Amino acid sequence: MRESCPISGRKLRTPAPILDRVLVPADQSLVDHLVATTELTATEAVRVVEDVLAFHAEPVEAYVRRRHAELKTYGTRNPEIFARLAQELAHQVVAAPVLSERQLRRIVYG
Fold this sequence. Notes:
The protein is mainly alpha-helical. It has one domain. It contains five helices and two strands. The protein has a two-stranded antiparallel sheet. A hairpin with a 6-residue loop joins strand 1 and strand 2. Helix 1 (28-37) crosses helix 2 (42-55). The model is unreliable at 15-22 (pLDDT under 50).
């Protein structure tokens, strides 16, 4: 979806909700652990695990673009935004990039 920027007329890309981006099945051993150590039912534990996975499935590029747009909205200037993004990314869990078989082989075999 694209929206028009009210100030400059530029087109802004509106990111899709994070939960719409990923369909990662919950890890059964994690679900079992949550059921055993909390008062959650199996269904509730699956939902919690899937929600957490979906929340952290945002790729780095999407996270940076989204946060940059958010911070710009409140009048933050680029030098401050980029410093803040660097700090946030140091503590943010983000999805790994999609790697081809060749890239995976290069990681393993050099």
